[in-house]
Amino acid sequence: GAVVSQHPSWVICKSGTSVKIECRSLDFQATTMFWYRQFPKQSLMLMATSNEGSKATYEQGVEKDKFLINHASLTLSTLTVTSAHPEDSSFYICSAIAGGVETQYFGPGTRLLVL
Amino acid sequence: GDSVTQMEGPVTLSEEAFLTINCTYTATGYPSLFWYVQYPGEGLQLLLKATKADDKGSNKGFEATYRKETTSFHLEKGSVQVSDSAVYFCALSEPSSASKIIFGSGTRLSIRP
CA of A40: which chain B residue's CA is closest? Predict the structure, then answer.
């Protein structure tokens, strides 16, 4: 099946620094990628949808200047958490769709801890 | 808005036990319903789905029936194995926005040998 990877799998950073998380589709071209956030014992919450070559569409309540999303190629999307604060600590998960297919393929997630 | 509620875990069972993980939903339309599974260190995988009332989704011995009257989509398996240990997510998507998935909070399942 289709494989999506994320890097890094976990990251610890100091408050005020920026962190970049990569999401790659390894064996298919992803026309659309999604970024989710999951707090402990809570649902995955969709943060934004990105289409290759265009600006991301953010869900209500998600700060686009805080969470920068770039989908520059059909196999790579990046999420940059800018000026991270402890409340940004969470589990970030990406998923991808191949063109014309409804099924989302999920990455294994990235755990971010901001000290 | 739409939402999914599933039983809190963790759920711990012995091998060959019967499994039920409850899931109920709230939706304005007629959603598609899903169960996803996440094995340790891996991404979420679609386990099964149902797209209309009374449909039964099944895969790997797991089953779930779309019950519109009770707005439920409970996951069942007759005899669990150690390899079924994972986190299970119930989810829905509306036809109007099929790519937007709304997830439950997940239920961790641990199976003892």
Answer: B105
User: For residue A2, what are its two tokens?
Assistant: 């289709």
CA distances from A41 to A80, A90, B6, B51, B91 (A): 24, 11, 11, 27, 15
Residue B83: how many other CB atoms lie within 10 Å: 10
Q: What rounded mean pLDDT belongs to chain A?
A: 91
A contact set with B (CB within 8 A): 1, 4, 32, 34, 41-44, 46, 49, 93, 95, 97, 102-109
What whole-number distance in Å separates Cα of residue A43 and Cα of residue B100?
A: 14
pLDDT at A100: 65
Q: Is B16 helix (H, G, I), strand (E, B) or coil?
A: coil
- Picking from A106, A110, A111 by the largest number of B CB atoms within 10 A of its own CB, the best residue to mutate is A106
| Sheet strands side by side (includes B75-77) | B19-21, B75-77, B62-65, B56-59
Asked if the Cβ–Cβ distance from B98 to A102 is below 8 Å, we say yes
Distance between A7 CA and the closest CA of chain B, angstroms: 13
In chain B, pLDDT over 90 holds for what percent of residues? 78
> Are A68 and A79 contacting, i.e. CB atoms less than 8 angstroms apart?
yes
Three-state secondary-structure class, residue A52: coil
